[in-house]
TrEMBL record:
EC number in record: 4.1.99.22
Protein name per its UniProtKB record: GTP 3',8-cyclase
Highest taxon of source: Bacteria
Organism: Chryseosolibacter indicus
Gene: moaA
Enzyme class: lyase
Length: 331
């Protein structure tokens, strides 16, 4: 199978696919307190359409799949979809991102089906702060899922969005999780994908500031290898079991090695997190387009991919500022 490249010579082998825009939390950094207007079911890609699309992209060279949302486990029969995905030729590894609220009953089957890793969204280790950030009292469910993942030897990455005035006091506590747990705790710059735009007048907790804060508290923090196409700068504290990552999601320092594309729950292709959609694949699928026609449209989109997230943002239709809810984008 040939490697798929974009117009900047970057390989594309990773598809992040949202199976729903719905979520059972209302996280501060993701959507307004009242939530968002969800898509009618008929506007979501069907499982059959998802399977066809993954099969098609796998034949083009995309070998890594991540299922996202919204919250993936909110969608009925998600495990049925996963059972079909793992059988698709060309799919070498699959992952899932979840908030952990509905995940625990499925962990043994996820392990059996060969999930490569689970990204667990967890922004604090304090129950009250969890309620404030997510606007739901589900802290114990999330922690139970984390423990079950570890008990079943599933690789876990904990995603924590760093928010001024919300969870700064958790940076040390979450770093301490790596002392005895073989987990990767990743601290993520907050982005304006909350359905309203930026919460702050100025950007405060950059990846550099996060690093400096950790280094101040852990002077022996050491840099470790970042794998190819990594979105995180990775570190380890000597003697600790796990590792720490810092993701410059807003600073966008990793665009030069980006190997991923996104598909929203309604079937809109995003070749960059910061664009507003470059191809309506759902319409192609439902208009009777054959596989070659869809491949040609995908290749056209890949050949016009922006060099970085700043250019993608500038190209947005009518120059509208970034403000969508991450739930509608696909994590």
């Amino acid at each position: 199978m040939e490697t798929l490249y974009d117009n900047h010579g970057r390989p594309i082998n990773y598809l992040r696919l949202a199976v729903t825009d719905r979520c059972n939390l209302r996280c501060f950094y993701c959507m307004p307190e009242q939530g968002i207007t969800y898509l009618p079911k008929k506007e979501l890609l069907t499982f059959e359409e998802i399977i066809r699309l993954i099969s098609l992209t796998a034949s083009m060279g995309i070998s890594k799949i991540r299922l996202t949302g919204g919250e993936p486990f909110v969608r009925n029969d998600l495990m049925k979809l996963i059972r079909n995905i793992v059988e698709i030729p060309g799919v070498k590894e699959w992952h899932i991102t979840t908030n952990g609220i509905l995940t625990a009953p499925h962990i043994k089957e996820l392990k059996k089906l060969g999930v490569a890793s689970v990204n667990l969204s967890l922004d604090t280790l304090d129950r009250e702060r969890f309620k404030q950030i997510t606007r739901r009292d589900e802290f114990s469910s999330c922690l139970a899922t984390l423990q079950a993942l570890l008990d079943n030897d599933i690789a876990v990455k904990i995603n924590a969005v760093v928010m001024e005035g919300k969870n700064i006091e958790d940076l040390i506590a979450m770093t301490e999780m790596t002392r005895n747990k073989n987990v990767s705790v990743r601290f993520i710059e907050e982005m304006p994908f909350n359905g309203a735009g930026s919460h702050y007048k100025s950007f405060t907790w950059s990846y550099r500031k996060i690093y400096e804060y950790l280094k101040l508290n852990y002077p022996d923090l050491e840099k470790i290898h970042d794998h190819a196409n990594s979105t995180s700068y990775n570190y380890k504290i000597p003697g600790y079991s796990g590792s720490i990552g810092i993701i410059a999601a807003f600073s966008r320092t990793f665009c030069g090695s980006c190997n991923r594309i996104r598909l929203t729950a309604q079937g809109i292709l995003k070749t960059c997190l910061y664009d507003d959609g470059v191809l309506d694949i759902r319409t192609l699928l439902r208009s009777g387009a054959n596989d070659d026609e869809i491949k040609n449209q995908l290749m056209k989109a890949f050949s016009q991919r922006p060099a970085n997230g700043f250019i993608a943002e500038e190209r947005r239709k009518n120059h509208t500022p970034v403000h969508e809810s991450m739930s509608t984008i696909g994590g």
